[in-house]
Amino acid sequence: MSRAIRIKVKKAPEGYDLGASKFFGTPTVPLAWEEDFDDDEIFLCQIRLSDIAELDRENRLPHTGYLYIFLHTEDGKYHLGADVRYHDSEPDLAIDDFNAAVEDYERYTEAYLMEFSEVDEDEICTRLFGVPSDWPHEDAPPKLLMQYDPLDSQIGFLDSLDGFVYFFFCDDEKNFENIILMEEYS
Fold this sequence. Notes:
The protein is mainly beta. Helices cover 0% and strands 35% of the residues. It has one domain: YwqG-like (Hypothetical protein YwqG fold, Roll). It has strands at residues 3-11, 22-23, 28-29, 41-48, 66-72, 81-87, 93-94, 112-120, 127-128, 144-148, 163-168, 180-185. The model has no long low-confidence stretch (mean pLDDT 91).
């Protein structure tokens, strides 16, 4: 059985490192991205890839820089779209209250720090890699980047969804521009 990387969260204390791996809060991004975000876009998470380097023994992700997941919300509260980005060095811009101006997402401005550990590939939790939990389809799933379990944390994001949000790679696992977001209800 393959291994995956579990993501546990805890509410960030005041004065935390803004460059930490986290859900929500203040994203720290490259200055060149400052004007690249749409009005309907929210910040979901950033992962400092050095934080998972020891756990990513198969080198599925780079071990330097940052991986970011932003979500397009133009279709309303559900049917979100993924905007996954990679930056190969340290970010130099912190954007306060990134989610505060997007209707229905204003409350997702508090940061939740990520802690990483190794788990089985099919563990029911929020995690990187592995296989999707409760995959109901006959076809094999695409390769999984991240599984978000709304009931696995204290965040409250999409907690009315009885199921999972999956982020799948398209064809090339090194291409983050074509990540597919899929909401799966149990």
